[in-house]
Amino acid sequence: MPSKPTSKVNTLFWTAKERKLYHGYGRSHVENWIGQIFKLYRVDKVNTTSHELYGEAKTKEFLEPIDVSGRVFISEEEVSLESGVRRYSKGDLICHVYIEHLQELDISIETGDFIEWNGRWYSVYDHGKGHVGTPYLIEDKYYHTILASQSSRDKFEAR
Question: What is the CATH number of domain 16-156?
Fold first, then answer.
């Protein structure tokens, strides 16, 4: 019976000291040089009443908004033609956030939370924690990739 591969980080190219150094460089670059900060609105799961069967809520209660530093991208703009009218919609928000930063803020980004970025609202549909690891990692996992679809303030306020 073959043995199971271990989930140790591949040290063939990088030592732990080098990984720590480059991680520090990357985090400093994102937080101090790029300086992209978005506002996170987390759902208050204690005070939000959800449907027994479906688990959905008509209105959501939110915790205090928190400023989170990360690397934010907006996917390409989508253009659709309906009845000869050209409609533009912004793409999804893709954000890379250092796990260490989230731990320092003592928060967790979950599906259903809202993000406000540059006056636009986005609803988180992938919190980035469910990615399956590989036993042959070249690097440690230092960040989560958050995916959020464009939403509106009306949806945030449940109008």
Answer: 2.40.10
